[in-house]
Amino acid sequence: MNNGKPKIGIYELTGCAGDALLIVDCEMELLDIFTAADIQSFAMAKSDNIDGELDVALVEGSVTTEKEISELKDIRERAKIVVAFGNCAAHGGIQARFDDKEWQENLKKVYGNQKFTHTKPVRSKPIDEFVKVDFYLPGCPVSKEQFLHFLTRMLKGNPPEHYPTPVCVTCKYNENDCLLNNGKLCLGPLTADGCGSVCPNHNIPCFGCWGPVENANAIAELHLLKEKGFSVEEIKKRMANFAGTKLADAIKQL
Ligand code: SF4
Ligand code: SF4
User: Fold this and answer.
1) In this structure, is residue 1 part of a structural domain?
2) Which of 21, 69, 103, 227 is within CB 3.0–4.6 Å of 98 for a Cys-Cys bond?
3) Closest CA to 225 of 178, 193, 192, 172
4) What is the pLDDT of residues 43-71, one digit of tens each?
């Protein structure tokens, strides 16, 4: 704490920077955020960044290079609380959809025999493969409401909200007609709740951007979708999109 304000660091590993941008996009709240917290490091928003002790580190992006492994470990050593901020940090992101063999093949296809001098690439993985993570804020990107709720709760010393149920639960509360019954490939049963079922609310199937819900049953969803007439390849491709490494084993068995 600094003058009673928590020291916060916001870091970006590999991703689209959408979660960091989301914070900058909190235009009406930005002054309050910078007043209530001591933002020590936030490369997208300020240049006088300090690498010191932190109360909370928000880490966006997945780990895709050896340099990022060292950076992440350094952040973990300096921070009391580490938060996986967004789908890439929490699950590995779209870039983690390949298994080791596919990843090696793709690396070779793109870079050939090029030598890596600055740092060595590694297959994309979520940050909890390398350090202990205290809290997860999923989403691609996280929503503004989710981030502001998290920050407000943290400033009062409370943990973030937990979403143990799938998107289908909110979708039912919202009284939507189930899109599966209308022949659409919806991943609501496998996906962590928290977005307010925004896509099905607009007749668009969920494609899983909040990542897998706890205990997601991919096999049961596969059987259901097969019964609805979708091909196994189509189902696997959709499931692999945002699940990163977290559904990888289940998807291999499909
Ligand atoms: S539309 Fe999708 S999210 Fe809504 S109940 Fe059906 S499967 Fe679940
Ligand atoms: S409904 Fe699914 S795809 Fe749409 S925002 Fe929510 S989790 Fe993401």
Assistant:
1) no
2) 103
3) 178
4) 999 899 989 999 999 999 999 999 999 99
Give the list of residues 6+ apart from residue 178 with CB closer than 8 angstroms, or none: 168, 171, 186
**Residue 79 located in a structural domain:** yes
Nearest alpha carbon to residue 12 among 97, 180, 120, 127: 127
Ligand 1 neighbours, Cβ below 6 Å, are 167-168, 171-172, 176, 178-180, 186, 188-189, 197, 200, 206
Instruction: For residue 101, give the 3-state DSSP assignment.
Output: helix
Distance CA(137)–CA(156), nearest Å, equals 18
Question: Of the residues 133, 155, 177, which one is the last residue of a structural domain?
Answer: 155
Entry pTM: 0.90
Residue whose CB lies within 8 A of the most ligand 1 atoms, among 163, 178, 207, 227, for a mutation test: 178
Number of domains making up the chain: 2
Asked whether residue 131 falls in the same domain as residue 241, the answer is no
Same structural domain, 151 and 171: no
